[in-house]
Amino acid sequence: MPLDLAGFLPYRLSVLANTLSRELAELYATRFGITIPQWRIIAVLGQHTDVSADFVCARTAMDRVTVSRAIAGLLARRLLIRRVSPADRRCSQLKLSAAGHRIYGEIVPLARGYESALLAELAPAERDALTHALSLLERRLTAR
Amino acid sequence: MPLDLAGFLPYRLSVLANTLSRELAELYATRFGITIPQWRIIAVLGQHTDVSADFVCARTAMDRVTVSRAIAGLLARRLLIRRVSPADRRCSQLKLSAAGHRIYGEIVPLARGYESALLAELAPAERDALTHALSLLERRLTAR
DNA sequence: TGAGAGTAGTTTCAAATGAAACTATAGTCG
DNA sequence: CGACTATAGTTTCATTTGAAACTACTCTCA
After folding, report:
1. What is the CATH number of the domain that holds A37?
2. A25 part of a folded domain
3. CA distances from A67 to A86, A116, B22 (A)
4. Is residue A14 part of a domain?
5. B48-60: b or e for each residue (b if 16 or more CB lie within 10 Å)?
6. CA distances (Å), B46 to each of B35, B55, B56, B96, B107, in order?
């Protein structure tokens, strides 16, 4: 009848995710002076160029307010270039500046390294099982 | 070279955990008028009685400030009883009130049900693989 | 003993968050 | 056209958060 918090999946995921986020936030902040929302935006713009803020919202699972403020911060540091879309003057077209690309080039291997270190103790089959299970859970949640 | 955020483990865990937390927070709020920190405290006091706030901190992975405030809220709603420890007057001894136990009795099956629904699409072996992988990651992180 | 160091818990303050209101532009249809 | 609805993005405001300072008590050891 009693429920053990330490075995309760939402609790475990929350603690784990928050620990990772804190560590990564610290890493990104000291190395590059950016926040996690900013990193996510850079990650999206490293793959897709001249996209709108709403596109970034969809890809980063962040709300508009967070994205708007993170973009403002990146613009202030000239890591991003923003133009108004000529086709639809409500939309912006965002892309990395040269400085933004430089940070992207440095931060991606760092992020990958962090992830690898984290997964280092899992056997390949265990990693696959984890990513597979996460996919199923994600699917369950996005399908309401 | 480009990194896909959707496949980046810390990102996936963060989004998943935040989605679950939001849903559960909504559930606990509408049904019982409590927050997630408050629920965690109730969960601990359902298993351990007459423990200190610091004990609760350790078991819930929440910081002192959060715990202090959540306890204040629960005391205000008379779901908790707090005494000063006679052995060490700095420490409190916390336990659920009768009303607190009643909520505990209702919320535990609800939480379990939520977890089961979440895991419903995973085969038993997949669930085991998930919990096993989470244990390994937890171990990696608590060991610095 | 009693001064200094340490621990339990609370309060304060500044930063992060997100819902709701707002601005500006675009599309619809009478 | 021109009113109405909808969308992109920003700003405002109230709430949540956690680091640091603070209070109160305990422990150590000279």
Report:
1. 1.10.10.10
2. no
3. 22, 28, 19
4. no
5. eeebebebbbebb
6. 16, 13, 11, 7, 11
Nearest to B122 among A20, A40, A136 (CB): A136
Structure confidence by residue, pLDDT tens digits, A45-76: 999 999 999 999 999 999 999 999 999 999 99
* Domain-located, residue A78: yes
The number of distinct structural domains making up chain A is 1
Strands B80-84 and B92-96: antiparallel
Distance from CA of A37 to the nearest CA of B (A): 11
According to DSSP H, which parts of B33-97 are helical? Answer: 36-47, 53-60, 64-76
Residue A92 structural domain = 32-142
Going by pLDDT thresholds of 50, 70 and 90, the confidence category of residue B35 is: very high
Q: pLDDT tens digits, residue range B38-56?
A: 999 999 999 999 999 999 9
Question: What is the interface size between A and B, counted as CB pairs within 8 Å?
Answer: 149
A38 CA from C16 C1′ (Å):
14
Residue B140 CB-density burial (10 A; 0-12 exposed, 13-18 middle, 19+ buried)? middle
pLDDT, residue A2, reads 85
Contacts for B143 with CB less than 8 Å, ≥ 6 apart = none
Per DSSP, chain A holds a count of helices (H) and strands (E) of 6, 2
